[in-house]
Amino acid sequence: MKKITLLIAMFCLNSAIIFGQSSSNSCAEAAVADPITGPGLFTVTAINGSEIPSPICAENGTSSQLEYGEWYRYTPSISTYTTISSDSNTLTQNAGKDTRVHIYSGSCGSLSCIDGDDDSGGGFTSVVGFNATAGETYYIAWDDRWDESGFDFLVSEGSAPPPPPITFTSQSISAPGSDRAAVDMNNDYLDDIVAVTTTNININYQLPGGGFNNVDYPTTNSINSPSWSLAAGDIDGNGYNDLLYAGGGGVTFMMANSNGTNYTPLIGPEDIFSQRSHFIDIDNDGNLDAFVCHDVEPNVYYINDITSDTG
User: Fold this and answer.
1) In DSSP terms, which residues pair with 107 in a beta bridge?
2) What distance in Å separates the CA atoms of residue 83 and residue 154, rounded to the nearest whole number?
3) What is the C-alpha separation between 216 and 207, in angstroms, rounded?
4) pLDDT (tens digit, 0 to 9) for every residue of the chain, 311 residues total?
5) CA distance 70 to 141
6) What is the three-class DSSP state of 13?
7) What is the DSSP string of 82-93?
């Protein structure tokens, strides 16, 4: 009797989380099938439906790379934040699967992307969330961009995740030179953008109210470029950061003058296949020294013997 009771309980539990349709081969077929109306676990037996998802809402590939799709209609009974997930971290049966999903509003033949996802779940599985309105129709479409085999996915309903604690705004700047760094170059506690060549140092000084002031400083040829590493530090303590160029053939120190408006190269004679470089007080005398990782020989360090900002 106990065994029978347990089986009945398990059957009821599984039934409680399954809602609505199996997959459809096209949007039109999904439009007349029973919709998903709430949270549940659903199985895509294989991606072999005749209609590919369009438009493409997820990253990594276009419709020309697709052959098949599987479609579901979703009409929530409550307004909610809905998550569609094939995440193998949660659905361990999806381990090794590679899924991609598209979420649409509108009607078949006139669909609009809400969102989509390729690889936000474990491995190469998918997770996407969106705000859904009670009674509205949405379409969930899976494609065969990477894999045609079957998998399971979850529909979850609940509260939207909290907004990120910080946001970022994109801003384009001019930064000529292929080797760059973000560092405070003028001791005003604001990071600046540095871009260098062997004959020029370009600095975008960050402004307190936002934005940047772009300044070019032509230099004597530094011989060595920071093709492997670019480090910054105030070696002589004059309040302006100096630069260390570590390249495939050697090291050059670019020394800032007393007001940070000119840079003079100090070129090391050593042949160093530099990998990474750092400024650090190696001998604990209060002055920054330089350490350079050599790729094929013992590492190299430079002990700072500058006693004043005049050298």
Assistant:
1) 110
2) 8
3) 16
4) 333 333 333 333 343 444 456 789 999 999 999 999 999 999 999 999 999 999 999 999 888 899 999 999 999 999 999 999 999 999 999 999 999 999 999 999 999 999 999 999 999 999 999 999 999 999 999 999 999 999 999 999 999 889 889 888 888 888 887 788 999 999 899 999 999 999 999 999 999 998 999 999 999 999 999 999 999 999 999 999 999 999 999 999 999 999 999 999 999 888 999 989 999 999 999 999 999 999 999 999 999 987 544 33
5) 6
6) helix
7) EEEE--TTT-GG
Please list, residue by residue across 99-114, b when 16 or more beta carbons sit within 10 angstroms of its beta carbon and e when fewer do: bbbbbbbeebeebebb
Q: What does the alpha-carbon distance between residue 294 and residue 271 come to, in Å, rounded to a whole number?
A: 10
Residues 6+ away with beta carbon under 8 Å from 155: 19, 36, 38, 39, 40, 42, 74, 82, 83, 84
Give per-residue burial for 243-271: e unless 16+ CB within 10 Å, then b.
Answer: bbbbbeebbbbbbbeeebeebebebbeee
Strand 212-218 vs strand 179-183: parallel, antiparallel, or unpaired?
A: unpaired
Tokens of 115: 């969102």
Cα 162–Cα 166–Cα 167 angle in degrees, nearest 5: 100
Classify the phi-psi angles of 310: left when phi > 0, otherwise alpha if psi is within -120 to 50, otherwise beta. Answer: alpha
**Local structure of 46: helix, strand or coil:** strand
Q: Which two tokens stand for residue 48?
A: 């072999």
Q: Pick from 278, 283, 171, 265: which is nearest to 222 by CA?
A: 265
CA pair distance 150, 302, nearest whole angstrom: 60
